[in-house]
Fold these 3 entries.
Entry 1:
Amino acid sequence: MSDPPRLRSRNGGRSLTDEAYAQLEELIVTLQLRPGVAVSEASLSERLGIGRTPIREALQRLAREHLVAVLPQRGNLISEIDIKKQLRLLETRREVERLIVRCAARRAMPEERDEFSQLAVTLNRAADRNDPKSFMRADKRFNDLCLQAARNEFAAGAIGLMHGLSRRFWYLNYRQAANLPETARLHANTARAIAAGDEAGAAKALDSLLDNIEAFTRATFSTDF
């Protein structure tokens, strides 16, 4: 009997494919799997304790997000970081994400607004503690909740290809060029505006956040593209 791709995890929550994706995405974004490193389904399966079919499906999803390059007959490579690609990504991200936060502010359910409020607290706590891993996890949940609350599958499909690359680039360079507390607080401001149902405020807060991210990105290199 084949390994069912949507076999549920032991805790009865997300599928094993989703679990494999979440763990691999964090390993890549936090540079525990370094750019340019070759990885195999077998080694990742052993490392995570998850079967090879969910690992394969997770790698395919990560390839669509440009975090992994799947090379026929050669295996899988963690993708290199490309500064030109990051700047093109930010151009697109600003327009799509502005739509997403406005939709989230308009359409979020009461329980989602409560979670946005709690995320604002968590992000401010990460800022106070200057804690990159807590920030990264809260940022990931903030991104996912924005997509859930926006209820626009087309915008979700577009932005889903960008978040992992953005988070990895930030994690690689934040010690040299970023102000983590400021970045975390700008995220918190956006979360609070969404929680309050303030569409214009959410868009304005997002613009401030992306201005910060673009300035940080440009501060990591000296060549004018």
Entry 2:
Amino acid sequence: MGEKVAFIGLGVMGYPMAGHLASAGHAVTVYNRTGAKAKKWVGQHGGGSGASPREAASGADFVFACVGNDNDVRAVLLGENGALAGMKRGAVLVDHTTASAGVAREVHAAARQSGVDFVDAPVSGGQAGAENGALTVMCGGGEAAYARAEPVIAAYAQRCRLMGGPGSGQLTKMVNQICIAGVVQGLAEGLHFAKAVGLDGRAVIDVISKGAAQSWQMENRYQTMLDGKFEFGFAVEWMRKDLAIILEQGRASGTQLPLTALVDQFYAEIMAMGGARWDTSSLLARLEEHKPKR
């Protein structure tokens, strides 16, 4: 039996995620700040749309959100027209936004006062993962809330796990982004070096991708990096938003994150080059830009 579901935020991630929920047999009502996109989604998948997050969430068993940042989370979930104001007691609210652990705990407290269960559940896998229903989902919250939400999340997830209490999903996503930042910088430097010393970059990757250097970034980004193509993927400005959250959390917890801070500076340089919407693999473009003239 399908559930009555609301999905708030139809960006490059939310649009296909909501589509997978509809395909799984759930009755989906959507909300998007740009109403034309909600109308397009309904035309493609059926279901309905709400004029506000509160209206979309009214009567839903599960409400999912995937928006931009902490302030966006507050705007669509809290307040008079937020989703929580329309949710019935006993429903489950799941936030897939990559945001701070602090805002996750803030929403958790507000949800508890409304008799609603809350799970912070940022995702990894990018647009392709969302479109293919193959996301990795890191969750924070109570065990009972997670147990109810996980079978519904399965519509677009290949891996989903409860990491701990409220905010733990967001903290886990921070670890994910720290690791990605370092891996992409290393890959960019490796490819830059290979070209500089006269090696065939594709041949190099064919060999080293079968050994200890292998990574998702290597498998999925080396060809476009070598071709100098960056107008796609996970945007630099989005990564900088995530890294800002991480660096703030690091300061609060007394954690040293020197490589993360350095890569954030490199991304700032890429934005100054006009690459705010380039894929994060554009770290190679920065190295090519700085290549000494001969």
Entry 3:
Amino acid sequence: MKPIRIIARMDIKGPNLIKGIQFDGYRALGKCEDFAYRYYSEGIDEIIFYDTVASLYQRNNLLEFISAVSKNIFVPLTVAGGIRSVEDIRKILRAGADKVAINTAAIGNPKLLTEAAEVFGSQCIIAAIETKRQTDGSYEAWVDYGRERTGVDAVKWAERVVELGAGEILLTSIDFEGTGMGFDIELTSRIAENVSIPVIASGGAGSAEAVLKAIKEGKADAVAAASIFHYYYAQPINRMFSSTNEGGLRMGKQIDEGNLDFLNVCYGGLGERRLMPISILELKKYLEDSGIKCRLQ
């Protein structure tokens, strides 16, 4: 059994790491580079940097950021958002990224995945699939960071990206994203069982148990998590939901001061606090104790 990869997903707007619920209601948590370096130091396997407004403005703004962080962070780095051409990919890889994840442009121009794989190798090319469950039980692929529907069946699209040359799939459930309710296991397993490339489960990680379920029942090869790490490292070390920040990473005037209140009054306003923040090391130990092989420091 190959070690399961634990990936930190970092959604970025301007200089800030942000987090929303179902791709909406974003809160700024702190400086991206501070969190990224902390995650690397704590033993994260990979990091995905997602430019949240790149597709909207048809450009990726992370080149300088990637060039800076790649000098001090030595795990695979993936860049997503606004990637529309082979030249875009070339610039991002030259800046220091190891992979790119493509969603909007791939659905609009499927040949881009093939061209990119031929030029850079499939190992560099991730097909990002953002999807919502429909009333009939099917899943529709969405683009522009969950803003626009496509009418494309997400499961069939996942099968096609394999044929087109993608090396991995970053699979995000918009319905579960940011809710802390766990992953969409039906979606993840349906796709993982029907494709021959690794599937990264994303959207909904609220606890160590949810991550374990995505691996065991969802058949995911890797798990991308955001809130459970962000809110752990943004909080004091004791992880109490207090109004202080001693030992945490939230800093600077640009930070939304409502974050701690947001957590205290029930995560996401969903009626109960589902989020159970955890450190990277604690999560890996939990998985190891549950029979899941991880990359340990």
